[in-house]
Amino acid sequence: MQRLAVLNVVGLTRSLIGNHTPNIQAFADAGQLSSFKPAFPAVTCTAQSTYLTGLSPAEHGIVANGWYDRVDAEHKFWKQSNHLVRGEKLWESLRADHPDFTCAKMFWWYNMYSSADWSVTPRPMYPADGRKFFDVYTQPMDMREQVKADLGEFPFPTFWGPKADIPSSQWIAKSAMWVEEKHQPSLNLVYLPHLDYCLQKFGPGAAEIPAELEQIDHVVGELIDFYQARDIKVVILSEYGISKVDQPVYLNRLFREKGWITIKNELGRELMDCGASKVFAIADHQVAHIYLNDESLRDEVIQLLESTAGVEEVRSQQDAFGGDSRAGDLIAVAEGNAWFAYYYWLDDAVAPDFARCIDIHRKPGYDPVELFIDPELKFPLGKIAKFLIKKKLGFRGLLDVIPLDATLVKGSHGRDNVDADEQPVYISQSAGVNVQSAEQVFECLKAEILAS
């Protein structure tokens, strides 16, 4: 077998490879570059699960980054248990014939309780007094203190939020090299999220993007040199491309105006009660899962969605996901320049407290506005400093600095029918590789490892 490192450069597309990515360009010139139709929806959890099982979302069950649990009557976003992903994983398939095969998962999602040999994933600590401490979770557990002792604390604020930037990808790259030096895994899965942040924040083609490309290209170049010096094959992979957007679509507000959303007042704030609502949306970038607690409204909901500006098409649960109950009864797909915001309140004064915070689990949808600090705050740095002082002293507080202006977002993803320049890429040094679909990535990676 050939040892393999897979560099998942999120957001990388054919159109971004060029003068500002000399290392990636040289790697592509020396090998084979395929761009392919992304998984549906083209989001992180779905794409990665498809790559690592070779199954469609209808088969592995990861229908989005989050969905509505019909039994608990709760929405669940960014869960981490690998048990959620159905099907045999890539390393399990290889291990069946080669018992000594090992795998390291460095920040790929669904990283907890997997059968991989070594893994690191973001996992804050939440003491009972309401505070939050940034940290990582590792398998084996004692690896957490070992990797932090050698590399320092993971720079969690640069992994997501207004400070999202290159340090998180740099740390992940160093941790991947650290695992190689300590354990020499047969397969090393490395997640490099940097482009995901800037492309959503500024949009493709923005003046800020060339400098961001140069930063991640430097990280990728160091990893290529590191692995090739150890005779480890490298594949560069991405999950999706980012489309330029200028139109947020608020499906839950439309449903509320129809009287289909049930609102619960909690301490003067409005919470959407999914279990009591007739119709509601769980928004995830350019795809929204629509759940019908009142099936009699199906035709009316479809008519409303199809007449809504920014909605390109409506798919059924059966057609999109083979009837998987995790998926919405209907799935709305945005037009190329639009995306779905989860907002359901009609007055910002009664928006839930978590709306203005970085709070990826409470929100009934993905919220890229968390990448921004509210421009209307007069002294945002002072407010953040005050919060951090209170936190250090052991007091609880609310870091409510996120704006409620979805028009700030300039890039999104999730659609599967996109132009070739917005499709994900697979770059290999192996001759004859031609990836056509997200499901095919599994067999291509397996072939890279088994090639003599």
Question: Top keywords for this entry?
Answer:
single chain; 452 residues; alpha/beta; Alkaline Phosphatase, subunit A; Gyrase A, domain 2; 2 domains; eight-stranded mixed sheet; four-stranded antiparallel sheet; 13 helices; 20 strands; 29% helix; 19% strand; Alkaline_phosphatase_core_sf; Alkaline phosphatase family protein; hydrolase activity; Phosphodiest/P_Trfase
Describe what this molecule looks like in 3D.
Strand 12 and strand 13 (269-272) form a beta hairpin. This protein starts with a strand and ends with a helix. It folds into two domains: 4-243 and 414-450, Alkaline Phosphatase, subunit A (3-Layer(aba) Sandwich), CATH 3.40.720.10; 247-409, 2-Layer Sandwich (Gyrase A, domain 2), CATH 3.30.1360. The mean pLDDT is 96. Helix 6 (166-183) runs parallel beside helix 8 (209-228). The radius of gyration is 22 Å and the shape is globular. It has an eight-stranded mixed beta sheet, with helices on both faces. It has 452 residues and is α/β, with parallel strands linked by helices. Helix content is 29%, strand content 19%. The protein has helices spanning 22-29, 44-53, 57-60, 90-97, 143-151, 166-183, 194-202, 209-228, 251-257, 298-306, 317-321, 380-392, 440-450; strands at residues 4-9, 32-35, 66-69, 74-77, 103-106, 118-122, 136-139, 187-192, 233-237, 243-244, 247-249, 263-266, 269-272, 279-284, 287-292, 311-316, 330-334, 338-340, 411-412, 425-428. The chain is built from 13 helices and 20 strands.
